[in-house]
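INTERNAL TRANSFER SHEET
From: sequence group
To: structure group
Subject: Aspartyl/glutamyl-tRNA(Asn/Gln) amidotransferase subunit C

Please process the attached sequence and return the structure record in the designated field. Keep the field labels unchanged so the import script can parse them.
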Amino acid sequence: MSTDLATLRSLAHLSRLEFDATKEQQMLGDLNKILDWVAQLSALDTTDVEPLVHLSHEINVLRPDVAHNSVSHQEGLRNAPRKDSDYFRVPKVLE
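Return from structure group:
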């Protein structure tokens, strides 16, 4: 399976990508290599192969999610470069 330059340009337009002439030829070559590799995979007989759901049989052991305050309000404000009573002072973002 081979892709031509017009197809690449159409895909680039749909993806909102822009290529110059040298990158366009490089992308066309890379895309054709990928499509050739997928064609090789399609040729394999996978009738007796079980679907792979997980890459590993390991199970994540997670701790319970318990909310707690590790830093008090005053401790949090202690190292603030600028503060106003109980709040952090930050530069204005919106005019």
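Handover comment: The mean pLDDT is 87. The two ends are 55 Å apart (CA to CA).
Transfer complete.
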